[in-house]
Protein: CinA-like protein
Amino acid sequence: MSTRTPRIQMLLTGSELMSGDTVDSNSAMVGQRLGELGITLERKITLDDDLDALTAAIREISTYADILIVNGGLGPTVDDLTAAALAAAAGVALGENPRALAHIESWCEQRQIPMDAANRKQAQLPAGSDILPNITGSAVGIAMTLGDCRVLCTPGVPGELRNMLDSIIDDIRHRHPDLQPRHILRLQTFGLGESAAQQCVADALPDWPQQVSLGFRAGAPQMEIKLTAASDADPGLQAGCREQLESLFGDHIIGEGNATLAARVLQLLSDRGRQITTAESCTGGLIASMLTRVPGSSAAFEAGFVTYSNRMKRDLLAVPEALLEAHGAVSEPVVRAMAEGALARSGADMAIAVSGIAGPDGGSAEKPVGTVWIAWGSAADLHSCGLCWPVERSLFQTMVAAAGLDLIRRQLLALPPLSWQAERRRIDATR
Amino acid sequence: MSTRTPRIQMLLTGSELMSGDTVDSNSAMVGQRLGELGITLERKITLDDDLDALTAAIREISTYADILIVNGGLGPTVDDLTAAALAAAAGVALGENPRALAHIESWCEQRQIPMDAANRKQAQLPAGSDILPNITGSAVGIAMTLGDCRVLCTPGVPGELRNMLDSIIDDIRHRHPDLQPRHILRLQTFGLGESAAQQCVADALPDWPQQVSLGFRAGAPQMEIKLTAASDADPGLQAGCREQLESLFGDHIIGEGNATLAARVLQLLSDRGRQITTAESCTGGLIASMLTRVPGSSAAFEAGFVTYSNRMKRDLLAVPEALLEAHGAVSEPVVRAMAEGALARSGADMAIAVSGIAGPDGGSAEKPVGTVWIAWGSAADLHSCGLCWPVERSLFQTMVAAAGLDLIRRQLLALPPLSWQAERRRIDATR
Structure:
């Protein structure tokens, strides 16, 4: 047991990681969990399924690291070499581990499959090692101490690793009881850019406390703001920082943790006993899909319309032919008529309607690719705006769908309809 | 210049890679491109932005590797240390590189922004190094030879790396002219499992030639089969292997390269001058969204219906109330009525309709979570089947949407409606 922050490295193994057939998300999962403990990974090494290279790496790292997390190579095939490499590095033999064997037997029994030689191989562990339980897969994890280094071997299947991480974290905390876990708060935002937000904090909050580190991670469509504070920092400090961010970015903040625009909108609607409908042209069903991906969405969503052609805007949503002829499908009058039609047909209280040019074809000088009109609100309180996002088709669809959801969120919360960022993209005055 | 296969390693740098805030997809991109050259990455090392650790790693790797590809750390901030670490490892000074400076000047000019000190820092390269052009970003790449090792430093922004990879590949081929690029053929499939497909090949094609390696990569919803052959292999060999796979998995193969079910369905419809519509309950717009993500989808898709509630199935798709009462929304008669209603309302030639229980709530003993009915076809030739996929909500939606598209694909190609795999999931007889 040590009072300094432990040195932790990862060793990843698998030919699919070297060929690029698999993108490694496992080490990011481990890095995030270690971050909550206040530990930063020191190094990651990724190797092919090569016994000598794996053995040499385990031996070398174990001479100075406190903890080595090995990922992959625990499966039943001949390419799975982690147990053999660990045994070779430790200078011990492989032998059948009774607890590992019992796990595999019960795993096969539950699935009503006979235990074959390949399964049985997974019970061959280095002498003197312990198992780390695997609640989903056939391969147990392996824990073993080499000199002063704790080696923890974990499965490559992401779901199995995720399930094993709690016992890994427990193992590390048990050996390093003085670790000071960090308080991490994640805020989900929409309509903010990474560098602009960073600059905004630097300009508006020059006295930001050093004890609370601030990270920005841009995704499409949301951006995450991460506040990290040491567990021994003043508890009021992080809360104070959060308040400062809320007054700075307030109406951009959707929620905490894994909050999404769609889930937030559905919750606001449910709280108010309202129903929403969608009328989509350029997003082609994406807004409805984002809403219905959320469990329980049926409480506030009954129907959506995908009207891709002019004829369907007319036949399904009663958009007047005259409007289509006079203004074109991508226009303010048409998108408002789409919203009105969807409200009338579905009986919902609120609607989001979008019509735009997703590209790559279909643009013109007057209405270039990326032009979109959005209408949102209720029949009595319907709003609309035109924006231009000249980006790749699927990113355009994602951003427009998110913008529609955000505009409804703002209306439900009585916030101003457009952020300073979206403002820059506006192409016309709204009503 | 060498005639053996070069030893290539990668060094990745960035605190976001250690914290897990970013998942590294760059090394997979590099691994795939090297695979086409017939080279397998020997090792990847990932480090924090730490000058000493980066310098030591570059120095160590350069003593035995032929090529070291460094990724990240070329930006304008103080955390970007790649040039400094390379200079330290080489024992040379950093100095302003005229070609790098010219690039940055022109980059700033194009964006009409003044060149600041941070931008100018990116022109500080190790003495004796060359630049690798960056057509999109401000940071040039760096090429330098340390002893016998070629060190190639690349930007961490994925799009910039992608654009730089052609010149990296050229640099490697120039120094290793005897490399034998591989022929790689990727086939996209639906309805096949990874291990079952592997077993199927082992059983049915025992004489599979050693010169053509076979890889299976399961994704949701598609699985990729990768055939890799040396460039000096008999050209007929890979073609022959492909034919064997086609006779084995024929109706599961969607197409080559990046083919998707939605794009394939749209192409088959366009070829036949037909239109498709969708009537979605449990997939909530996902099928329409998958179709409209494909550029040019308007040629074969005009309208889709998301009817999440019973009332909307009745009001929008004219599903008889009596059917809903007698059989429930998740039933064969209702899903067929949904398809018929969507065909009638949209005027399309073909429809996909789905109604199921995505969960986590809403299941019963008779109709557990994962139960789904799908109807597909034209008014004159309408089919239906019931399946059960008891998986997590969003995976269920993805798999059901893909199954619907695959059933239409099979009908358009006059293939049998269900594969042996889906057959196992059937819950009732079809008409």
In short: Chain A has a mean pLDDT of 92. Chain A touches chain B through 73 residues (CB under 8 Å). Chain A has 16 helices and 17 strands. Residues 55 and 402 of chain A are 49 Å apart (CA to CA).
